[in-house]
Amino acid sequence: MAKYRETIVISNELDKKIRKWLNNPETPEETLHEDETVTITAGFPNGVQMDIKCCGVQFNEDEDNSAWTEAVLFAPDGYEISCSEPADTFTGEWTCEDGAGNIYTVIVKTIDI
Fold first, then answer.
1. Which alpha helices (H) appear in the chain, and where do they start and end?
2. 33: pLDDT strictly greater than 90
3. How far apart are CA 12 and CA 43, in angstroms?
4. Which residues contact 30 (CB under 8 A, 6 or more apart)?
5. How many Cβ atoms from other residues are within 10 Å of residue 2's Cβ?
6. Would you say 105 and 71 are in contact if contact means Cβ atoms under 8 Å apart?
7. How far is the C-alpha of 22 from the C-alpha of 73, rounded, in Å?
8. CA 67 to chain centre
9. What's the confidence (pLDDT) of residue 60?
């Protein structure tokens, strides 16, 4: 069993956009649409990768139109190993396990760029 940890830094500008999409946009123009996804990827020394994703939704008036987030863990050959539960934040700590007891953590931080 091993524990892996990586950090990804995103711009404050991207963080601001994502937070807007996650906070129930009021118009279709403010919404991250259902066919759009923002993805950042962390690579681990053993070839495993984790995508942190902000996923869009179909806009429906008078409903919650918040985008949602998740982490997806991939084997070196590209097959999905596991994923997190859907969430409503992008920055912070994301953790997935590979089924063999190895734990992968990605920290998403912001920086002024």
1. 12-22
2. yes
3. 22
4. 20, 21
5. 12
6. no
7. 22
8. 11
9. 92
Q: With bands split at pLDDT 50, 70 and 90, how would you rate the model's confidence at 20? A: very high
Distance CA 52, CA 73 (A): 9
Q: pTM for the complete prediction? A: 0.93
Burial of 100 (0-12, 13-18, 19+ CB in 10 A): exposed
Q: Compute the distance between CA of residue 112 and CA of residue 21 in angstroms, rounded to an integer.
A: 20
Distance CA(36)–CA(78), nearest Å, equals 21
For 19, the 3-state DSSP assignment is helix
Partners of 10 in beta bridges: 110
Burial (CB < 10 A; 0-12, 13-18, 19+), residue 94, is buried
